[in-house]
Amino acid sequence: MAALAEDVLKLHCCAILQLDSDGRVLGGNAGVAAVLGYTIEEIRGQPFSLLFSAADAQRGVAEQAVARTLEQGIEQLSLAMVRSDGVRFRASAMLERVFDPAGSRVLVLIRDITEIFQTQKRVREAQEIALRAQRLDAVGKLTLGLSHDFNNLLSVIGNSLDMLSLRRSGDESVRRILDIAHRAVERGTQLTRQMLAFGRGQTLVPQLSRVDDLLTASLELYRRVCGETIELEIELAADLPPISVDVGQLEAALLNLLSNSRDAMHGVGKVLVCARLETIIVPSGGGERGPFVSICVGDSGPGIQAEIQESVFEPFFTTKSVGDGSGLGLSQVYGFAAQSGGTAMIGTSPLGGAAVSLYFPVAA
Ligand SMILES: Nc1ncnc2c1ncn2[C@@H]1O[C@H](COP(=O)(O)OP(=O)(O)O)[C@@H](O)[C@H]1O
Ligand SMILES: [Mg+2]
Question: Residue 81 pLDDT > 50, yes or no?
């Protein structure tokens, strides 16, 4: 290691290893102990792959990197490495070919970049969440405009049907037709109400409420929605602070989530509803952090594929056949949570299936 200045060899923030052309360790600096946990004596003579995860070692990642360095002169890796105590860390490794009278050597400079890596990951995730929220906001505005217009049209149609019903009440066949038209107007009104919810345009009546009380009081209703072949469990954190929420809409949102779980599991499986206190970033709320009371509905179903996770909150997005799904359930859930000052997120349940979490700010 004559090529390296004395002070570099003493550096503790990065490990420097010298490998022979077969990838065996010839020596290293003081940083080897600090970064990798090995003494020079322990690591001398060991293969470079000793520092790699079992999967990477098996795939020959270390040998390939050494071979490429000998061929091209330089190589850069960013991957998980394993310390002597078995702890994994995110490593940045710079490999460089050096010529020694005894033959070609490879100098490896390894830095632990776990913290930088995780910060970058968090920033990336926050950006993705913000972008998704912006898209939902835009669709929300469009939906809000549409739902107001349709609502007005449906009111006119409904009123006209009412007037016709009064005049024609004696004629049985006409009454049947009017009934069908009435039902269609009711269904249309319900759909526009859900669209209004997604566009954050519904009139909410928030009440100071305790989530644990609400969930416990409605447990029987939830059981009925799930059906007998679904096991429903509720897990409530102790001392949950109160939230200010429209209780009727919260109930509607939870029933939407439970019926989605029931559909996803084809009526057989497990559902876990949890409530706890959490700190998260809310993109639609200007990036604020909690604390939030979260209510999560998770199931043992097949989960939501990564490709469609971005779309499930959008109105009319459904994977169900015509007549089975309107695609407005999760958009009601999202719009309601956002209008309540929180948000909704998709995740994975400890039961293996999908988990949808609602977040509500703790009441002031
Ligand atoms: N618990 C769940 N497990 C698997 N997929 C789900 C779950 N909840 C929602 N989804 C997916 O999200 C889509 C949209 O849900 P939703 O907005 O409630 O509309 P709908 O239930 O009418 O299809 C569903 O069609 C389904 O593909
Ligand atoms: Mg649904």
Answer: yes
